Amino acid sequence: MQTIQLRPHENLTRVVSNEKRIRTPLTEFFKINNNNEHKTTERYLYSQFTEHYRWDKTERTWFKRRNKLLVIVRLVFVSPSEGERYFLRLLLNHVKSPKSFEDLKTVNGHCCSTYQEAALELRLIEEDNMVDLCLAEACNVQMPSALRRLFATVLIFCQPKDPVNLWDKYYTALSEDFRRDHPNDAYTVRVLTVQKFEQHLEAMGKSLRTFGLSHLSETQDIVLRRTRDIIDALNAPIPKECVKCRSSLNPEQQQVFDTIVEHVRENKPGAFFVDGPGGTGKTYLYNALYAEVRLLGKIVLPTATSGIAAANIPSGRTTHSRFKIALDLDVPLTCAVPKQGSLAALIQATSLIIWDEASMARKETVEAVDHLLRDLCDPDLVFGGKLIVFGGDFRQVLPVVPHRSLREVVNSSMVSSAIWSQLIKYRLTVNVRAKDDPEFSRFLLALGNGELQTEETAQIELPPGIVVETRSTEEELITTVADIAYPESDVNALGTDIFIKRSILTPMNEDVGAINTLLINRFPGEAVTYRGYDSILIDNRNIYPI
C-alpha cells in the first residue's frame, strides 16, 4: 500500500488507473532493483541510490547520472510514534536493493507480517525487554492512574512488538484502583480501565486501533458511556449573564431563539445559519441559546473559527481543537476522532453545536465536520442529524487563502459548498451595539451590503459626523482625536470605566505607540515602571510532582 497525491479537481479512479501517476520514487526504486538483479556491483541503500540516479518528475522514472557529482541525500524524518512508517524508513536505511515491499519485509526467507517484525528479526531495534523492565519497575512505585499514562506513553514512543501481551501482563496493576472500588464487578473494572487508558492515547493523537487493541472496546451501558468529557460538559457552569440574555432578545433574535430551542426540546435535526453584520447581537444570541439548552440539562458544544470569537462564548473552543481538524491545508481535511473514543461519545450525546465566525472557515473544514458527524451519527442526514447553528458575517472576513484571487477566495467559502443550500438561513439587521445612533447603524449596514458603491472597487463617502477635517501635523491630529475620544483627560477625570466603553482604533503599530504615549502623559499621578520576572510556583506538587 502506498500514498498517492491528487489535486482537488482530479478523479480518484482515473488517477489510480493511470499507470504513470501511480509511480513513485520508491516503487520505481524497487523496479530498477528487479532489473539489476544480476548486477552484484549495483546494490545500494535507498539513501545511496540517489547518488547514482536522478529522479525525473516529468517522466516519473529514475535515470542514471552521467556526471559524478557530490550528492547529499536525507530521507524525510519520521517520528517513532508514526509506527509502521517509521519502521519502513528504518529498513530502507539498512536493506540494500529491495525489490518490493514484501522483499523488504523478508528476512532469511521468511516474509514478516509487519515492518516492525522485520526490523526486530534484523536486530535493528531491541526487543520489548526494556519496556517490560520499565513497566515492571513502575508497578512497584506508581499509582494506577500514573501507570496508565506511562503505558500509553510507552506504546506511542517505544513501539513495543506485542502491545496485547503487555496489556494482559500488566492489566492487574493498571486496574488496581477500579478493582478496589468495584470488587465484584469485573466488567465495570475492565470498561473503566480501558476508558481511562484510551483518554491518554487520545490526548496524544492516537487510539486503541493504532496498537491493535481495538478489541478492548466493548458495548457499554449508558452509565459507563458517560466519559469524563460528558460529565464535564453536563457540569459546566452557566454564567448569570447568559441566563439574563434570554429575557432581553429583540424580535429578530427571539425568532431564531424560539426555533432552535423548539428543535432541541423535540430532538429534531437541523442546520441553521445566522447572518448578521457586526453589532447585531449574534454572540448575545449564542449566549442565550447556551444558557437555555444547559438549563434543560442538555449538552452544548460552542465553537468558533477563531480563538478570540471562541472566548466570547462559555466553554468555547476553536472548531479545529474541538473536532480535531487537521491544520495542514495541503492534505485532505479530516477529523481525527476515533469512533470508540470519549470525544466521539461526547459528540453523540450533544444536543446543540454552535459554530461562530463560520464565514471565515473554508468549505473543506465544514465538509470535514459533516463527514465526521455522519460517520458518528446518521450517515443519511446532513451533519449526521445533529442540530448545528452557524453564524457569521461575509461582509467582514472571508477565509484566508494565501496567494489566491478574490474569486478563488469566494470559491473556498462555505457558500460554495453543496451544504450551503441545505442550511436554514436567518438574518439579523438591527444593530444593537449602535442602537443609540440609528443613522450610523444604517450607514454600516449599507456599507456592508455594498449599497454605497456601483462598482466592485470604488470610493465611498463617509458621513460628516465621523470625519475630522484637519491640515495639522500628525502629532496635532493625534491630539485632536484623543481630545474627542477622551475629553475627561484635560480635567483629570479619567476613570477605569471610560476605557471599557471607548477606544481609539488604528491599523498601524507605530500610531498605537504614539497614541499610548500621549495619553499616558496626560494621566494624573506619577508614572511607575513595573518589571516582570519568572519564578517557580509554590504549588504543593500539583504542577511539578516529585
Q: What does this 3D model show about the protein?
A:
The protein has a six-stranded parallel β-sheet. The protein has a two-stranded antiparallel ribbon with strand order 1-2. It folds into five domains: 12-121, no CATH class; 129-225, no CATH class; 233-427, P-loop containing nucleotide triphosphate hydrolases (Rossmann fold), CATH 3.40.50; 437-466, no CATH class; 468-546, no CATH class. The protein contains 24 helices and ten strands. It is globular. Residues 541-546 have low confidence and may be disordered. A hairpin with a 2-residue loop joins strand 3 (106-107) and strand 4. With 546 residues, it is an alpha/beta fold. The protein has helices at residues 12-17, 25-35, 46-49, 84-92, 101-104, 115-121, 129-141, 144-158, 163-174, 176-181, 186-203, 228-234, 240-245, 251-265, 282-295, 307-310, 319-322, 342-349, 363-376, 406-411, 438-448, 474-485, 496-501, 509-522; strands spanning 53-56, 61-64, 106-107, 110-111, 270-275, 300-304, 317-318, 352-356, 387-392, 424-427. Helix 4 (84-92) packs across helix 6, helix 8 (144-158) packs across helix 11 and helix 22 (474-485) crosses helix 24.
Task: Please summarize what this structure is.
The chain is an alpha/beta fold. Helices cover 41% and strands 7% of the residues. It contains 24 helices and 10 strands.
